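Researcher: Quick test of sequence recovery. Tokens follow.
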């Protein structure tokens, strides 16, 4: 089983409902392929390091998932490229060290919420 992390940025002109719909769309692609979502984080509206498409902010979202189907990544990235709401995305494969750090980060996030 391979582990992946995908971070994507949605355009800042979307309403909360539109952001949720876009996130759910990408989540459905992941789940329908048989992958298991290990962690999902909504980082909210953040300032970009540099302007993208004349926008200086964007809605960040992260999915961490595991799958045996390598074609999921290609399918997901095609969906990102076709959706005009997405201004950037990045998918990385997690090795054992990155996976361990992801678990630490996840436990810290849960501790901060409590």
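Model:
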């Amino acid at each position: 089983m391979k582990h992946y992390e995908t971070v994507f940025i949605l355009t800042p002109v979307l309403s909360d409902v539109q952001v949720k719909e876009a996130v759910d769309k990408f989540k459905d692609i992941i789940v329908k392929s048989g992958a298991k979502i290990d962690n999902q984080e909504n980082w909210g509206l953040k300032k970009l390091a540099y302007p993208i498409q004349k926008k200086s902010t964007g809605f960040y979202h992260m999915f961490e998932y595991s799958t045996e189907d390598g074609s999921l990544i290609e399918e997901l990235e095609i969906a990102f490229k076709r959706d005009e709401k997405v201004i950037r995305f990045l998918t990385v494969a997690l090795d054992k060290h990155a996976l361990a750090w992801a678990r630490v980060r996840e436990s810290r996030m849960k501790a901060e919420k409590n």
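The longest helix spans residues 96-113.
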